[in-house]
Amino acid sequence: MRADATGRVLHDPKGGSFWFDAGALCLDFAHTGGEGRYAVFETLHEPADLAEWLSQPPLAAILTVPATAGELTAAKALRQAIWEAAHARAARRALPCGAVDVINHAAAAASLVPELAADGTTARWATPVGAVQALSTLAREMIGLLSGPLSERFRVCAGDNCPLVFVDSSRPGARRWCAMERCGNRHKLRALRARRATEP
């Protein structure tokens, strides 16, 4: 339930993986797959895949009610809406009305409720814990980002043809890359080659 421990390992269908921290859990969720050309990155194939993703830290929402096929469909719709809204905000475009409607609809459901454990030092989610509640929590986080102090900090990775989107919460607000070890290093390598090519 730590709100500051975001980030997930992303896997490339062509091979390789890397750690990507989108800066917010809802944005991490937006990178679990996608539509069209992003379908090759799909990780939520079955309701159980959704339940597994939600159960991981920092959300740690271990469902007490099994996820359904309908909830998986709703999750993918919310994921797409978050993706579209984040990219629109990063490009300083108006948010798509359809994406706003989906996010608002998901947020309207009851969200996860934190509960202090009997030891008085740890917390958990009060039961029942359902997928709809977890999705509402993600949608509400996205609303908070879009309407809060980080609303102008949405960025798309500056790497060539890299569509990964993140919110830059660093103090200087100078983050450019999805991950330094991926697109950042590729950029540095290309710049080095370009300099060497122009040297006498």
TrEMBL record:
**Which Pfam families does its entry note?**
ABATE (PF07336), zf-CGNR (PF11706)
Domain Zinc finger CGNR, first and last residues per copy? 153-196
Q: What InterPro entries does the record tag this protein with?
A: ABATE, ABATE_dom_sf, Znf_CGNR
Q: Which residues cross the membrane?
A: none
What the entry lists under Gene3D superfamilies is as follows: Jann2411-like domain
What is the protein name stated in its UniProt record? ABATE domain-containing protein
Organism placement in taxonomy: Bacteria, Bacillati, Actinomycetota, Actinomycetes, Micromonosporales
